[in-house]
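Appendix B. Raw example, untouched.
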Amino acid sequence: MTVAVDMGLSPQGQPITIDLEELLATRLLVQGNSGSGKSHLLRRLLEKSAGQVQQIIIDPEGDFVTLAGPYGHLAIEASEHDEKEIARAAARIREHRASVVLSLEGLEAESQMRCAAAFLAALFDAPRDHWYPALVVVDEAQLFAPTGGGEVAEDVRRASLSAMTNLMCRGRKRGLAGIIATQRLAKLAKNVAAEASNFLMGRTFLDIDMARAADLLGMERRQAEAIRDLPRGTFLALGPAISRRPLSVAIGEVETRARSMSPKLVPLPTATAPEDLQGLLFQPSLDFDVPPQPARTSPAPASETLLEQLATKQTPRAPSLPAKSEQEQADAVATVLEAMVADSDSSGRSAAVLFQDFTVRLRMAGVAPAPLDLPAFARRLAMARAGIFTEDPDWQPALDAARDLPEDMLGPFLLLARAARDRQPTPSDEAIALSYGTASLGRARRLLSYIESRDLIVTRTDLSGKRSIAIPRLGWSTAAA
């Protein structure tokens, strides 16, 4: 079973979806003139796949920071950090699988390229243990992978182009799936664009861009005129993750909005006589002073991790609640975790997204501040998804055995350990996938293979096809099922 991302409707009213797992392997190129709906398309893709895969967005205009509230992305303002801090943050993003929006708003073009190059290079150079799948969305990609030198320093252009090339050419093996959007195919480096296997082509008017778009879509040159006539928000789609033949898709609605919107006509003010307007504009003023510039705050300490930033995102201070004993706090945490796991909407969401919901539920239960930080919450959430809601000392051997596993695999391992300890039937692939936060049965099977390769479990299948799983270190085994 694959994860299908609903993008919109065909002219016949049929839903058009993108296979998320296929997209991770084959990358995506989006092209369209300004106003064609590229940013709307990217926002639809990000919203519909949120919670299914890590998302990393390089945002030159700061339009996607509005994802931070509803979907739990961490918004990083590049202007508040130096290049080394951005690179360190990128490494931690891969380690902790945090979904982030890197806003480059407020930086000059050369500084944007330099920052994006450092950020992408750090993502690419992450240790092999951190090669988790992630969508890397780069809006206005022609700024970071230009065909010519432009007005930026040559070393900056080369660094940015090299980082973009690595993302699109070699990123797949490292779990990085490049999704690039551009206004002009002619301004985007060909070796970057050529690595995408999926295409969504929107309205464009220049002949050279229409010709390149038609070539990528496998259309004849005489058919390229159709690209000029596409309505706003409609794209021609092709690729293994979408369709084997070009088809038209009208992108569906989104839940969030960009901070900057398309200009709308508003009524002009009441007409003023020219002589009055002249006096109004050039009237001398004795009390006019240049407002003082606010002191620039120092950047965040380099030792502060992204997870710490996520954990310290607090709502405005409210009156303190009566103190509760440690046992009362532990009982409240267990009750809240049990309620969250029972909530079907939380099954596919990451710990970073659910942490704020956890703190709100605890406050409603009279516990504030939350006794768990984000890493501790992620661990307890994994235990809760396996049906373990309290910190029972009897489970410490199982936790010790799973110490070398990635954090997101703790839940599935404990699910198996719980069934093995109680001699219950082996959990189904569906149950294992649910505890892993996915709907893909193939991913659940690959997860079991990985855990078995670490010598933590042994899978047996008898002649009747029933499967049992043993945990040799603990001496536990599930019943065949």
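End of appendix B.
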